[in-house]
Amino acid sequence: MRRCSVIVKVLRYRHSDMLDLERQLKSIPENAGKLIVTDGVFSMRGDICKLPEICALAEKYGARVMVDDAHGFGVLGPGGRGTAAHFGLTDKVDITMLTFSKSLASIGGCMLTSHRVADWLRHVSRPFIFSASITPCSAATALEALHQLILDPKRPERLMNIAKYFQKQLLANGVKIIEAPTPIVPIFTYKTLDTLYFGKKMFEEGVYVNPVIAPACVEGECLLRTTLMATHTEPIIDEAVEIIARVLREGAPAM
Ligand SMILES: Cc1ncc(COP(=O)(O)O)c(C=O)c1O
Fold first, then answer.
1. 253 Cα to the center of ligand 1, angstroms
2. Shared-domain flag, residues 138 and 29
3. How many structural domains comprise the chain?
4. At what angle do helices 18-26 and 51-61 cross, to 10 degrees?
5. Where are the beta strands (DSSP E) in 34-178?
């Protein structure tokens, strides 16, 4: 009988550093199975992974590719089909993991892969085997959101346009951001207590942002993660930018 469990060694490569990824791949015995895992869109800074380079390295070193497209699905590519579609590399990605908790407005998730890998996961994936499945209403919500995306494939384009407008307005109002090619726009606030204060103050004024503090980011590089929706309009964005810029300008009390 074939053994189902496998022992894997995890090697980390530096963020989007293709030289480091290649260094790691070189260090693995040629005949060992290899899987390169990457986010499609990185959740904190909204940058997109270097999928063309990753796929080229996978081919060179006989590795498979897995993309966690939690933040790419519904956002990038034609009709929001995700990061691999954005690069025209759908055929080169072996496993795509999606969560339903972002653009599909629900909870749960899925993996897009071959029947063989899916069958294997059904039998060996501990979180899959030992967790209750999602509720029918969560599945129905995700399906309906997917249906809406299929009915209105221009939604991702509108999302990108409003994200660009948001970034332009933030910069025009003196807010320090890293310009992102996606609707995740980080605003740097650096210190933990300042970040929590700004997040709370903005929420009280009507703008919901995610304060990101260690260990979700490096200590001293705290930020407010802002995310956009396709249904946001320019007047809503103008109002939000006014609040964000004012709260930051007023500063946090000394703590
Ligand atoms: C990159 C990435 N992958 C996966 C997830 C998992 O999402 P959830 O646990 O909501 O399904 C998240 C959540 O924020 C994420 O940022």
1. 33
2. yes
3. 2
4. 20
5. 35-39, 64-68, 95-99, 109-112
Domain extent, residue 232, equals: 155-250
pTM confidence score: 0.92
CATH number at residue 29: 3.40.640.10
State how far the Cα of 199 lies from the Cα of 208, in Å rounded to an integer: 8
Domain boundary among the residues 96, 124, 151 is at 151
Closest residue by CA, ligand 1 atom 12: 70
122 and 234 inside one domain: no
Nearest atom in ligand 1 to 43's CA: 16
Q: Are residues 50 and 129 in the same domain?
A: yes
Report CA(161)–ligand 1 centroid distance (Å). Answer: 24
Same domain, 240 and 126: no
In CATH, what number is assigned to the domain containing residue 204?
Answer: 3.90.1150.10
Instruction: Say if CB 209 and CB 44 are below 8 A apart.
Output: no
Instruction: Report d(CA 228, CA 160) in Å as an integer.
Output: 9
Separation between Cα atoms, residue 152 and residue 149, nearest integer Å: 5
How does pLDDT run along the chain (255 residues), one tens digit per residue? 455 567 889 999 999 999 999 999 999 999 999 999 999 999 988 999 999 999 999 999 999 999 999 999 999 999 999 999 999 999 999 999 999 999 999 999 999 999 999 999 999 988 888 888 899 999 999 999 999 999 999 999 999 999 999 999 999 999 989 888 999 999 999 999 999 999 999 999 999 999 999 999 888 999 999 999 999 999 999 999 999 999 999 998 887
